[in-house]
Structures are given as C-alpha cells and as structure tokens.
Design goal:
The complex is a heterotrimer of chains A (208), B (286) and C (721). Residues 1-14, 46-51 and 203-208 of chain A have low confidence and may be disordered. Chain A has five helices and six strands; from the N terminus they run H-E-H-E-H-E-E-H-E-H-E. Chain A is an alpha+beta fold and 208 residues long. Helices cover 59% and strands 1% of the residues of chain B. Chain B has helices at residues 2-20, 52-76, 79-96, 103-115, 123-139, 142-147, 149-156, 166-172, 175-188, 194-197, 202-206, 211-224, 230-234, 237-246, 265-269; one strand at 275-276. In chain B, helix 4 (103-115) packs across helix 5 (123-139). With 721 residues, chain C is α+β, with helices and mostly antiparallel strands. In chain C, the strands form eight sheets. Chain C has a five-stranded mixed sheet with strand order 2-29-30-31-32. Chain C contains 14 helices and 35 strands. Chain C starts with a helix and ends with a strand. Chain C is elongated and about 130 Å long. In chain C, strand 14 (502-506) and strand 15 (513-518) form a beta hairpin. Classes of the chains: A alpha+beta (208), B mainly alpha (286), C alpha+beta (721). Chains in contact: A-B, A-C, B-C. Chains B and C meet through helix 2, helix 3, helix 6, helix 7 and helix 8 of B and helix 4, strand 1, helix 5, helix 6 and helix 9 of C. Strand 1 of chain B pairs antiparallel with strand 1 of chain C.
Chain lengths: 208, 286, 721
Amino acid sequence: MSIPDPSRDPKIARMSRRGFFAKLAQGGIIAAVGLGAAAIAAAKSPRDRRDRQRYVWQIDPNKCTQCGLCRTSCVLKESAAKCVQDLAICGYCRICFGYLKPDMASATPEPGVANEMCPANAIVRKFVEPPYYEYTINERACVGCALCVDGCRRFGNGSLYLQIRHDRCLNCNECSIAAACPADAIARRPADDPYIIKSRMPERPEKT
Amino acid sequence: MTGIMRKLTSAFVLMTVLAAAGLAWGDFKFPPPDFTTGYQRAPVTTPAARAHWQELLDVALMTAAMGLSAWIAFRSRRRWMMTALSLASLAYFGFWRAGCICPIGAIQNVAQGIFDPGFTVPISMLAFFVLPLVAALFFGRIFCSGVCWLGAAQDFVLIRPVRLPMWLQRALGVIPWLYLAVSVLLAATGTMYLICRYDPFVPFFRMTGPWTMLAAGAAMLGLSTFVGRPYCRFLCPYGAILGLISRVSFKGVTITPAECINCNQCREACPFGAIEPSNTVKGAPK
Amino acid sequence: MNALGTRIALAVILGAAGALAGVRLAPSIAMLHYVVRQADQVRFEEEHPKSATTLESDSFRDWGMSKETLYADANAVLRRFRLGTPIAGAFIGIAFALVATGFGSRRRRNIYEIDSASCVSCGRCFASCPIEQKRRRQATGSPRPTPSPDSETARPRRHFLIAAMVLSALFSGAVGGVMVLTLVEESQTVTFPESPAVAEMERQIKAHPDSETLKAEARELDARDRQQGQIRVERLRVGAWMLLVGLVALAGSARLYMLSTTLEKPKRPVSPPDVTARRFDRVGQVAALGILLAALCLLLRPAKPVRDFVIAPTTMQAHPQGVYHDNWPSFRGDGMGVVPADNYPVEWDNSGRNVRWKVAVPLPGKSSPIVWGSRIFVTGADNEHQTLFCFDRTDGHILWQTEIRSPETIKRYAGGPEAGFGDSIKDTSYAAPTPVTDGKHVFALFVGSDIASVDFDGHVKWVKNFGVPQSPYGLAASLAFANDTLIFQYDQGGSAEDSLSAILGLDPNSGEAVWHTPRAVSATWCSPVVARTPKGPVIIASGTPYVAAYDPQSGTELWRCSGMGSDLAPSPVYSDGKVYATGQGGKALAIRMDSKDDVTETGVVWSQDISLSDAPSPLATPGWFFQATSSGTATCFSAAKGDLLWRRNFRGGFWSSPTLVGDVVYLSDEDGRTHLFKAAPGFQEVRVNSLGEPIYASPAFGDGQIIIRGAKHLFCISAKK
C-alpha cells in the first residue's frame, strides 16, 4: 500500500485537522492541569503553615452526645473510636459513674463485673491514696460505646471522652462514623496534632 | 434506654446529696486532687497518625506502577504482565492500604479544596489526583489497566464477556458525567463524599462494611463476570475524565496496524467495546 | 455542519433544561447537608412544639449555639446549592447532549482502530492478534505451535481446571455459609446493656448485695458472653480471608478455563459492523437518555425541598428574659446581665491572648457597647462633640460615625465649648447613657437629653431634645425598649418636691412621646429596665425615694415601693418573680413583682443594708443576689432571704456591672481587671484577667465574644481564631 499524498487525500486532510484540534486540546489540558495545581497550591500556601498539612478525623468531645454510634458505624469491626481518660481533669472519685452503673453503685459500691458500666470491662480501677482511685482505659478491650463517657459527663468532670485512635483509624476519605454522627461531632484535624486533649482546651462549662 | 435514664436520674438524686455535702463545688464538679504519695498522672496517650513519608511512598509506588504499565502497554506488550501488575496493585493499594486514598475519591478533595476556603488538599492527595491525568495525556488510560485497584478487581473476575449493544454502551456512558457533576457539587458544598460513600469495592478491600454496600459490591462483581468493567465504564467519574483526556493523548495503544488482516480477533477480544472495525479499507466487512 | 448545528442546539436545550432542573432541585438536594437538615429539624420543632426531638436537634441544643448562627450557616449552605446545582445541572445536560449526538466517537477508520477514550490498555487486543503473535514468536526465536484444543495435554488441563473451579466454589460456599450463620447469630445476640440475662443478674445482686456466689456467677456469665463475641469476631475475620482466597481461586480457574476453551472455538465469521446499532435512532438515544435523566432526578429527589431559614424579626419582646446569643441590644443585654454559656473565653490578657482585636474609641464615654449582628454601637462625647460610632464586629474598624446634636444643643454650644455640667461630669462623662437598638435603628441618648434615631448605615432619622436636665452629672439613665416603645427615664431636680421628673414612652418612628408619667423623685442616674414577667413586660424604674413599676403600653404606674437611698446609680433587676433595687443611703429591697399600689409595707420579701451598691447595677439569679461597690467590695446574698453569704474586698473599685455567664460572674474593675468567680454560695475565684486599662462600662456578650469598652479602647475578647 503506497503512502498517499496527504494534501490530495481528503480523508488524510481531515485527519490532520483532527490532529490540529487534538494538539490544541493537549495544550489546553497541560495548561489547565498546570494552572489548576498552581492555583490550588498558591491559594493555600502563604496563609498558615498548618494549611499545607494533612488531615485526619477526630471527635470533638464538646459536640459528642454519646449516642453510641461510634461503636457500630466505623468500617472497622472494632471501632477506631475509643474512650480516653484525661487524668489531669479526673476527680479520682471513689464512686465513678463512668465506671459503675448508677443504681449498682448505691447497692454495692464495690466493683464487680455486674456493677460496671463498661460492657467490655475496659476500665481499670486502681487505688491511689484515700479516698482517691485512678481509672484508666484498657484500650484493647474498649469498644467505644460511650456509656462511661455519658456517666462521667453527666455526673463527673467529663474526663472520659471518645477519641479516634490513629493507630487504628484507616483515615477513610469519607469517615463513616462522621457520616452517621447525629451531632456532626467528627471533623478533619491537622495530622500532626491529631488529638483533642480536654485538659488543654479553653474551659467550656460542662452542661449539667 | 429509658431504663438507663431512670438509673441515671436516681444517681442524680444521690449526687445532689453529695453536692449538698459540699463536695461538688469548684471549677470541676470534683476538683482534681493533689496527691501526697507522689503519684504521677499519666498523660493521654496519642498514637500518631500515618506518617507523611508513608503517603509519599504511596504516591511513588503509584507513579512507578503507572510507568511500568506504560512500558508493558507500549514496549513489552505482554498481557500476562499487565494482569500481574494489576493484581499486585490490587493487593497493595486495594487490600493492604484498604482502598484509601484513590484518584477517584481525590476528585472530591480537590473540588472541596477549590470551593471551600477553609479546606486544603494535601500534596499527596493532589498527586494522586493529577498524576494519572498527566499520564493519560501522554499514554492514555494506562492507570486504569495496570494500577487502578477497583478496575483490577473487576477485570480479574471477567470470565465470559458479552458484548453490549453500542447504543446501550453510549447511553450508560453518560452516567459517569452525571455522577461526576453530583459528587463535585456535594463535595464542593461540604455535604458528603458521594463517591467514597457509595464505592462498591471498598467494603471488600476492608473486608467489612454495611451489608447494603457489601451486597452492592457483590452485585457489581457478579456483573463484572460477564460485563467488562461495569464500574469503570458506566459509573467511574474519574474514568470519564481520563477518557476525555485520552482522546487527545500523545500516544495510544495500537494493534498491529501495518499488517492488519481484518481477522476481527482484536475486536472479539476487547470486552470494553473499544475497538471499532475498519469501514473504509477495501475488503473490510460492510 | 448540520451535525454540529444539531449538537449545539441540543447542548443548549439540554443544558438549559439541566440548569432549570438544578434550580428546582437545589432546595431538595441541600437537605443532604447536615447543617440544613439540622436547621430544618430545629425549625420544624419550633413550629410544632409537641413533635418529638431528634438526635440532631438535641445535639444542636446541647452545643449551646444560637439559632441565628445555625440558620445563617444553613442559609449559607443553601446559597451554595442554589448556585452550584444549576451549574451541575447544565453540565449534566450538555454532557447528555454531546453523548447523545455521539460527540467525538463517529469517525471514519482506515483500519481496526482503538477508541482511545474507552480503551483501558488491558492488552487483550494485541495478545489476541495473530500478526502480533507471529511477530513475537519470530522475535523470541521460539516457533511454538499453537496448542491444539484437542491435544493430549489440553484435555487433562481443562479437567483439572474444572475440578479446581468446583472445589473452590464449594469451599467459598461453605465459608460464606458459616459467615452468614455467624452474622445471623450475632444479630440475634442481645448484648449489654439490654441483655435480659444480665438484667436478671443485676436484680438478684441488688436483692442480695452480699452474695459472693451471685457476683461470681455474674462474672462468669459476662466472661462467657464476651468470649463468644470474641470468637464470632475472629471467625468472621478469618472467614473473610478464606472467602477471599476461595473466590480468587474460583475466578482464576474460571479465567484459565475460558482461556483454554477460546482456542477450541471455531474462528467466528467476521461479523459485519453493527450497522443497526450505529443507526440506532437518534430519537431513540435521546429518549433513552431522557428516561435515564428523569429516573435519576426522581431518585435524587429527597422527600421535601427545604425553605430558606428566616429569623423572625427579633424585637426584644421575642426573647425570653436573659436569652441573648448573638445580639446585645441594650445596657446589660436586656438590662439583667445574664447570658447562657456559649464558649466565652475565661482567659485573656493585655499581651493579646484571646484578644481578637483592640481599637481606640475616638471620644470618651462611660456608656456600654451594644451589639447587633455584625455591628457594635458605642457612644462617645466631650464638651464639643456627641458621636455615635459603629464598629465592625469582625475586625473592629469603624464602619461609620455620626454626630448627634439637636438644634437646641447646637444653639447652646454655639458660644464655643461649653461645660454645662461643671466638674462633676468627669465622674459620669458626657456619654453615660447606653444606646439601645431594635435591630433596625439605634437610639442614642446623651448627657444633655439629646435623643436620636440612627439607622444601621449611620443616617440620623430624627433627633430630639427634652431640655437640659437639672442634674449635677447630666443624664446617665440608659434607654430601654418595651412593646415597641422607647423608654426614657428623665429624673432631675434636687428634691422630689421639685416635680420635674418623669418617665416617658416614645414612638421609635418619630420620637414623639406616646405617654408621659410624672415621678415624684429627685435626680437619679439609674436606668429603667424591662422585666419580662409571665404576664408581659413591665418597666421598673428606681428612684429617690421609691422604685416603681409601669405598664409599657400606657405608662400607668402599677406599684411603688419606698425605702430607696439618694444619689442613685444602680439599676433595678428582675429575676424569678422578684424585683431587686439597691443603692447607697437606703436599702437593698427584694420586692414581689405581682404587687399593687404602694407596696412598701406589703410587697417587700426582704431588705438589708450591708455594702450597698453605689455605682454598679446588681445581679440576681434565682438563687443569689450580687452587689459590688466603687470601693471594691463584692457581696453575695441569698435570693430567698437576703442572708449575706460572702463578702470580699478587691483592690480596684467597681463601676462596671457584673454579668452572669452560665454559672460564672464576670465583673470588671477600674484597674482593668476582670474578676471571674462562680455564682455560688461561697466565693470561688475562677480567674482574674487584666487588660491594663480602666473599665467603667459593662461588657457586651454574644456568640462567644466579649466586647469590653476600656477607658480608651474597645476590645473584642474571643477564644475563636
């Protein structure tokens, strides 16, 4: 098959017009991608160093309503949201309503499986000195149900609260707990400061 | 829950008694005590999030995989290599990295980054979005074949492809544009990440998820056994953009054009309806 | 060109249709946004007070955010959807049009050619190309004959693959079955805290709290439950991997099997190009696409479109007592100085911590700032000027300033700077009365009784003068607003017998007096307040010698109670059915609101005369009553009986009035310190914050910000960035 003269073959001429448009489009795409990336980078860069950083998901304890959906909504079978204990604001109460079921506390103020609020036995109580007890979370056992958070927030200082643990979190692009949260309490946060430490927050009076 | 509420109310009565005894006033209901025994409060543990270099490693791996894919498609031209590469990236990006982040979902981050002044797109995310597009401009959709783990999952289970009528392909081919418009709208308004929420494959990569999404994913994979890459062709918004760019790419995959014998084998082999028969060369079927 | 014309026409038509659909659908799609959904639910519950609340609306109330902020946020989201949805709709329409007309896909081909848009470069085509295969064999130099499907090796290989397929299918099925059973079992297991077994256990333990066996049993039950749950989780986890392996084996063997059989197939006759398909009616295509579009629109359409969120025009009557979130329309908010907690900062200092902005106020004045929306209004005056300033709440720059002088004052000042009130004016300033706003206009009052109505853009609507008061310090009473009437307490004269004093109700539109009620009192500097009682608003005005209540509609005096001191500056307050009035030289009185006529003998719940306030207004809560003095003493009394609960002396004196925020009292002194202490029956300091500049005015609170007027500057204190 001989090569036809492009200038005389109308089909080839047509092709080259296509080729011209293709070149135009190529140039356009290169320009668009370049300009777009530059615009995104430039628009964000100078304001704040933090802006350039990456994000992870975190729970705002002040917005959290302890609805219990963190336990079930995470894509992980064992939720990435777990309870943390901020000992700096813990009252070290002997009767801790995050630890004990309220009515059981009055009936038998001693710990025992059936008296405990936590369905997973994840709260560890340790005697410190009279009359104080230390409560810590066994994170391996914690299921993130927020029952203890509710008790502590209602009756105590609110030192127990839920946080997304980033050794477990997959950092999904669309956090399924955030999608389910009825209080819109889960938002993105800079990855180099991924936790909210309640004792370091500006004080906000707890609701009673 | 009413039972619990009742218990809590009874506890509140108890608390009030305690409060009246003068225990509960202060900055806190129970002021954090000063210990005399030298007890030290442990700080809240803060396991770190995934490090930045790990994300950059993902970007590097994706870039390398795309390079390899281009090499296979244009130089080596071996089908088994492409299959092996796609399975490797299915294993790493899909199952090991649990499917996040992906260029398809990154559309939404970029959209929100553009329209929401308080939201920024991390550099790794931007790279995931831009690099396959740039690659498509040079080599066509080499991302889809060798790298995309969603595509790899569908392609792997494609056992007996059937040819869809052209008009149906064309009609369904408009859905990705619709999906793109809606998901960009929802991401730009900060409403939700539609593509991620209804990604049918990601529950498989994580091996867990709401049963509705698992069922949708199973249905999609079932469909994939006889319809070539249904998600890529009829849903994927990123595929739509890649297709548009590929139309004007510098290079495109070719068959062996110089010596074509019009055997129609390539057209039979393509499960995605991408090969059009010749209609001008003498002897071509009319 | 014809095709191009069709294409453009269709694109325009479908694009426009898409945009129109977008306009229509925007309010529905916006419901997908959390804030819109939440705001809609909050509005629904307000419109239907008996409806059940949802977790969304409950959490909104739990946050302590104001409804105005929520609605503003929701409206902002709605605006984005109003703009974005039509654009997305137009985009979809144009995409439909282009795809329907086969944009870019219909072209002549010389050879078998790949449509680069649909090709994913999987490599199947060149792998199947006989020429390519030949080329490769030649290149590698291993002329390998194509294995015949009927060859000796191919058949056992196919049998092996069939066996592998069957086995892996059986394996996957078995694993899947076990997993489904586990999931069913899990869904039927009731776990804590609803488990009936645990509830029964609890009941028994409560009945026998000393029984160790019961506790041991409970422990065992609990451990067993948890162990079973753990086993299920583990089973599912392992099962998922096994299922994956099984399915991969199944798909892999099936693929290989198909590969081995394709060779068996006789070479298909070359099929003619799909002419009918390509000729598929354009009309048919468009119809198919239209149906698709319609179906998707229906699918996307949520139950109901959302309406815009409108804040009812908030006159002060719309608020219950003491509830101000974003606005602070008059002296001490609504006169009572009580605000719900809303993330107000508790720490700030003059190094700039939590000080969002600080701007100089060009003219002095001891009047307090008021806030409406994004505007802050402050008055300032000296012996030449009387000015109303409007500051931008976001950054503190002056939006506008308006000079307010009635013709009478201009005439009076014509002879040059004129003191008018002597040296004593230094204690109160030329701008002592705090302005008031109804959300549309600001009403400012100055020392010589000039009252002006100024709109939010700084245009003076009317200005009136009521005569130079016979008062050593000039006027200091702030304005108030009740039932759309502007309340102006005009007390003057050296003694009650002078009969010069009055309280007036002014029409806010014209400044004309609607009613005028004379008062037999001497000059005072306390402000009238509007008590929002269950039966409606009532005006309370302190005076020497009596405090009185007036009907805001007619100005009729409802009751009066004698016993007040002289040279009064503290304004009365109302809380929980009781009016509290105080002032040096007399008594602090707690008076029942629902009194009639002269109640000096009958209506007083309690009275006391310890550390009576001389300048700051008191603060009352249902439990406690606080007072402070210009010598730096703060006291707390029980609201029920008037018992002194605590008294504390501070270094600096107090001129600014206390504000109750949640359960913390904010009280600023003349050295610039703001003392924060708990509203509690014992003094508990929360913090002391210093701005380093005397504070005489009372702060304004709103939306997490505290607006403090110092002697020279206006500060915005906010913990938010």
